[in-house]
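Researcher: We're teaching a course module on how sequence relates to structure. For the next exercise, students receive a sequence and then see the predicted structure as tokens, so they can try to spot secondary structure elements on their own. Here is the exercise chain.
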Amino acid sequence: MNRISSFESLVGEEPLLLILGSIPGVASLESGRYYGHERNHFWRLMSAVLEEPDDLDYEGRVAMLKRHRVALWDSVGSCVRPGSLDRDIREERPNDIPALLRDHPTIRAICFNGRASQAVYCRHHAKKMKEYDIRYLLLPSSSPIPRKFIKTFEDRLEKWMEIRRILGDE
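Model: And here is the predicted structure for the students to work with:
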């Protein structure tokens, strides 16, 4: 089985918030774009949170994040994984998130897009992160797969709106 790799981080000038996914799924890897599966809710959620149009093309979406000082990356730098499910991630190698934070000291919060991202981050970086004054927020995954308490887009959006509060606090 082949090793897959995450994309480069998307970071604008003076980001305040970093959103970490786990690693791109098959559709995203094929398109070369973050959250490239048409059913994933990420871009729709961010458009709602940031009060921006939800019909932007990919370049417009990336510009939207950067304009609102939101950076995007993944906890997993590379891994072996058949398909797109996080539970199938094996032989993970993390992205160097401490280096990203050193390069961008304006980042004051990290939001995890799902538990898999948070788990990888904690496994590899929790002890190193004590030197940073970082606020953390676990968000329900933007994946369209229903969860026990998160079944609809509106359920997800309610939780993701916390991003607006974080950005407003800075």
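Model: If you want an answer key for the exercise: The longest strand covers residues 17-21. The domain at 3-169 is CATH 3.40.470.10 (Uracil-DNA Glycosylase, subunit E).
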